[in-house]
């Protein structure tokens, strides 16, 4: 039975495969657990494979920064779905590839407030700060302004594999026997703008409800990276990203209405 939303393979080797293959924070496993294991990796290369509907935005930002600041080269392959916070986690990769048939989705952060008008006003400010931070991560790879990316986020934009490459959220396409269709694996009803082409897709084949097969390391990512190489735009420094972020404890308090 699957008991975590991530798996780290061959952690003692020079090339490590990390699978992010469920909703972040599910199974009672926290982002803190993931980051602790990630920091213990001494490999030169991390191949991160993603098939996730996202999760808590604070967890996503923490995971992004942990990957971004890791000494290893981080290569990302989206095998199925990179939605919500999973989409900006992929932007931490030195290289991002989309498996043919995969999907990426970006949208605005959301939260729940219970309280008076002041509390709701505080939440509005918090969500806007969160949105600006996330938009800066997309702009850091793909170019454009934060305002342009906020507009795309507000529209809940879904991108097929080639579309994600065209808009520069990914660097290229890759053929993968492990490519997965998110329909039939994830409940996408919580999103507002799921495209018909994704809703009408046939369910993905899985072994059971408790076990989803995970991919094997069959792709020569080094060769693919050379094949899809392009000049990479300047990325924002960690200092500039952290400067744009807010005090986590204060915002968590605001999100909880405390």
Largest sheet: 8 strands, mixed
Overall tally of structural domains: 1
User: Beta-strand percentage?
Assistant: 15-25%
CATH architecture: Alpha-Beta Complex
Task: State the end-to-end distance.
Answer: 37 Å
Give the CA-based shape: globular
**Helical content, roughly?**
25-40%
Count of extended strands = 8
DSSP helical segment count: 10
Q: Over all CA atoms, what is the radius of gyration?
A: 18 Å
Order of helices and strands: EEHEHEHEEHHEHEHHHH
Low-confidence parts lasting 5 or more residues at pLDDT below 50? 203-219, 227-258
Structural category:
alpha/beta
Mean pLDDT: 79
CATH top level assignment: Alpha Beta
Brief overview:
With 258 residues, the chain is α/β, with parallel strands linked by helices. The protein has helices at residues 31-39, 57-68, 85-90, 117-142, 146-154, 161-166, 196-199, 221-227, 238-244, 248-255, and strands at residues 6-9, 15-20, 45-52, 73-83, 95-99, 103-106, 157-160, 172-174.
């Amino acid at each position: 039975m699957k008991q975590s939303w991530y798996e780290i393979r061959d952690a003692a080797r020079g090339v490590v495969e990390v699978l992010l293959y469920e909703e972040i924070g599910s199974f009672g496993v926290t982002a803190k657990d993931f980051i602790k294991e990630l920091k213990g990796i001494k490999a030169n290369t991390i191949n991160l494979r993603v098939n996730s509907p996202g999760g808590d935005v604070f967890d996503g930002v923490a995971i992004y920064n942990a990957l971004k600041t890791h000494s290893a080269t981080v290569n990302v392959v989206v095998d199925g779905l990179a939605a919500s916070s999973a989409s900006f986690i992929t932007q931490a990769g030195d290289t991002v590839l989309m498996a043919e048939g995969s999907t990426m989705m970006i949208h605005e952060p959301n939260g729940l407030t219970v309280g008076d008008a002041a509390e709701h006003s505080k939440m509005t400010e918090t969500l806007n700060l969160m949105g600006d931070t996330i938009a800066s991560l997309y702009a850091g790879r793909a170019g454009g302004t934060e305002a342009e990316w906020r507009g795309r986020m507000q529209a809940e934009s879904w991108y097929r594999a080639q579309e994600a490459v065209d808009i520069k959220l990914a660097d290229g396409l890759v053929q993968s026997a492990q490519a997965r269709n998110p329909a039939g694996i994830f409940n996408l009803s919580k999103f507002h703008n799921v495209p018909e082409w994704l809703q009408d897709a046939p369910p993905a084949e899985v072994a059971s409800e408790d076990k989803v097969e995970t991919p094997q390391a069959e792709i020569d990512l080094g060769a693919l990276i050379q094949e899809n190489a392009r000049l990479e735009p300047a990325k924002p420094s960690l200092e500039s990203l952290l400067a744009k972020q807010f005090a986590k404890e204060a915002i968590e308090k605001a999100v909880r209405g405390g």
